[in-house]
Every structure is written in structure tokens, then in C-alpha cells.
Amino acid sequence: MKPPSPVDGSALPEALPGAASTEHASAPVSASAEAGPAPGEESPHPAQPADSGGSASGSLWRTRLGNPPRRPLLIGLAGALMMVVGGFGAGGVLIRDPLLTNSALGFWRYGHGREIATVLIYTGVALMVWAWVQLGREVLARRVGGRAVLTTAAVWTAPTLLAPPLFTRDIFSYLAQGGLSLAGFDPYAVGPEAMPGIFTDNVHYFWQDTPAPYGPLFILIAKAVAWATGNNIILGVILMRLALLPGLLLLVWALPELTRRLGGRVPVALWIAVANPVMIIHMVGGGHNDLLVVGLLAAGALVALRGRPAGGIALVTAAMAVKASAGIALPFLVLVWAARFPGSRRARIAKATAAGVGVFAVVFGLCTLVARVNLGWLPALSAPSMIVNWMSIPTGVGEFLHTLVGLVANVPKQPFINVARIIGAALLLWIAARQWWAARDGGPDAVHRAGIVLLAVAVLSPATLPWYMSWGMALLAMVAWSPRGLAWIVFASLMLVIVYYPNGEDALYNWPYLAACALLAALAAVSLLRPDPLRLAAGARARKPAEAMPMPATASAAAPSSPGAGPGTG
Predict the structure, then answer these.
(1) Mean of pLDDT over the chain
(2) DSSP-H helix ranges across 263-308
(3) Which residues of 462-473 are buried (b: 16+ CB within 10 A; e: fewer)?
(4) What backbone phi and psi angles, to 5 degrees, belong to 437?
């Protein structure tokens, strides 16, 4: 596919919702087949959104916000508020909450109160997924534009900024690591237990003696938050989220133009990357530093494609200075730079590599000096490998084979996992090398393939956590997707949300729970393309079953049919 011509993506497209029709519902979701007078616009004929409550055009402020569909906006907001309220009883609660402990509201954290809070959180998750699917239907039918999707996502996200950590306790580890550095400890040599206190008390026991596996830029951010927080851990959680929020803003800034360059549609990309429950619940509600990584990755890719590859490599180096996995994108941006040099391909790649290494050394060295740390974080990168769960494909294969052999012989599990991880690493190296060589001409294709490799890193590494998937999707959300591929995204996103309990403990081996959630996730995925798949609406069973939303041939041929898979993956 020939990339679209450069456009200014600094502003999101205005929403120009078109009339609902079966033709709109079956329209391709790729940019190349999109009709309209301007990129990102959904229809040249403004019309009333499907769920606008019957008003003709809404007030001026609604128009400026893209006329977001009211029903999913309010349902998702209700879900977010329920998760926030429930989070104070069943989320990543403090060991001793200065507001709730020994107060009249303390019951919310114990016994029946905690059970009610848990139900409230899961109900909130269900409402948010329901709202997200409804919004997805509007996007597929081209009744809403990018600005409406962004407005809706912002309304859903805002309450989670003030929530206790949701489905994780990692943010307490971040604060403890910042406190260690502030107190003069080397966070790459000791774990939080080296400095007892309110931060350390709330760190999950699994990570108490684990050095920080994060880069110097993140240690600098955590140190600044710990300094500003003092011993107020509630303020620390909020400030840490705000410190990571620029990652989301960078993603939103880069997404429109990056989407047009990669051949996708802006509303679809925003729906995948920004309005996704994984983003709202895990990334923002959980306060994971991956939020900063994805923003720097997307911004770096766009800056490089705009003709400033040195700036792009600097931004991605900053992402690597938060989490090392972001460095996977650097060789692909080198190819983008190489395309701008004269000479043979080998000479161009050599020149770009030398220049890229120089930019990397300056930026990473500066981050290390300012943070006043050393390279001790490199050995600490092995810390996540202590996690053993089946979300990592090699680890899951090793566990499965051990289970089979265990039926006939009593053998230890770890050798199976170690061998499977070695094979997984070899497979990952092969995928990365092949994708890099296929992207040797640079341009948007190099960015696309960088997203494929980042997603492969997330699932083939020794350890995988739900929010790791965001690395690759920060770039793959912008490519062309088929409706069937979007349905797979719905299924995967819901499963990624619920494989951890609200308090941060994993649910990966609670098979009845996972089976029930998988059925609900499949129902949500089907309902994206086939509203009311169970035919529960009044009179639905007396009528002929509605046909599923037709999938256009152009989209199915040009777009990936499942997350991470796309044209040229060979």
C-alpha cells in the first residue's frame, strides 16, 4: 500500500457523523478506501449521531467535542465511577488507609463490604466494555469521528486518575524505588525492603527484595514524585499517574498523522489505542509506566517519519530509558533514517546506524547522569523472568508439556520452562531479524514492522503481563484493520483486563473463572459486528436473525485479521 501524503496531524479531525446505513456499516476501515473531502472525516454530510438523544445538533460545546454518542459516553462513565468507588474496598488498597482505616467507612475494606466493592468493580468493567463495544459500532458505521471518540475516552478516563490502583499494586513499587533513590540507596542494587516505611509497606511481597528493572529516566521521575509526596502515599499515587499522563497525551498527539501514514482510520485507531478498557483500567487506573513508553514510541515514530529521524531516535531512546523493551524500535527507525542518505543500501544503513548510535549515547547518557544512577539496571532486567505464567507463550508451552509428562512421571517443572524460553528467544530473534530486513526500505512500513516485533517481544519474552501488549499496539493500532480483526481486539482486550483480580493478584490459574470470562469476552466480540447476538431484544426471536455486519473484501485483504498480524508479516 502506498502511504498517504504527509498531513498535519497536530489536531484531531472534526467529527462529521454520517447517516447510518448498511453501506456505512460494511465500509472498509482502511484509509485507502475512505470517501470524504478530508482525511479523518467520516462523511461529507453532517447528520445526527445515532445516540444523541434526539436533539438536532446539540449545543455548541458538544459540536466542538465531536458530538460524542451520549449512550456509550454515559454508560462508560458510570462504569468508571463504579470502579473508582469499588476500588477503595477491593482495589490495590493501602495496608493502612489514613482515610478509611478505623473510620465509619472502614467496613468497605473488609468482609461483606469488600465483597460488595468487588462486585461493584466487575460491574463497572462490564459497563465500560459494553460502552466501548457500542462506541465501536458507531465507529465502524462511520457515524462518529475521531474527536467524538477522544472526548468519550477522556470522560471515561478522568475518574480513574483519582482511583486507588486498579488490578495492580505496581505503583507502590514505583514510589518505593523513587524513595530509595531519594534516600541515597541504589535502586538497582537493593529492593524496597532495604528502606522500611509507608511506601515499602504497600509493595507486593513478591517484589520486596527485587531491584528496579526500569531505566534511569523512570527512576528520575519516581524520585521526583517521592520528593514531592513526602509520606503522603495517596498523593503519591495521584502524582505518579499525573507524571505518566504525558505518555497518553503524546500518543493522542501523534496518532492522527501516524494513522494516515500507516493506512488506518483515525477514529478506529483512537478506539483501539485510547478508548480501550486496557488503556483506561490498566494503563491509567493501574498507573503503569508503560503509559509513558507508548507515548514516546508513537511520538518518536511520527517525528522520524516527518523527516527528523534524529529527534525520533531521541524520543524512542527516552522510552527505552523508562523500559528497555522500547529499544526494539530503534533499529527500525535507523532504517527510516537510512532512506534519507545517498549511496548504496549498505552504505546508507551504515551511516544511519552510526548516527543513531551517537544520538542514543547522548540521550541515554544524559538521562543516566541526571538521574545519578549507573548501568546496574541491566542485570536487574532479569527480574520479570521470575514471573512464571502462561501469558508468555514459551512459558505456557513449557508448563503444558510439564503437565503432560507429569501424568506419567514426577519431574521438576523448571527445566521444561527453561528449554521453552530458549526456543522462544530463538523464535523472537528470527522474527525480529526477518521483519527488520523486510523493512530495509524504511518509511511507514518500518514503523509498522516495529510494532509487529514489539508485540512479538511481549508474548515471546520469558514473562508477559497484560499491559505489555500496549508496546506493539502503540504502533499497530494505526494500521488498517478489518472488522473481524477489531472483534478479536475486543476479545483479547477484555481477557487482558480480567486475568488479574482487582487487588492485583493474578487469576491466570482460576480456570472456571477464566472460562466464564472467555465466554463473556466472545459474546462482546461477536456483538461488535452483530448487535444483540443472543436475540434478547423484544420481538427478536420472532424475527429472522439479523445478518452480521458484512466484512468488505478490500479491508479483509489489506488489513490484519487478528491483533498484531498484518500484511508483510513474513
Answers:
(1) 85
(2) 266-273, 277, 290-305
(3) bbbbbbbbbbbb
(4) -70, -35
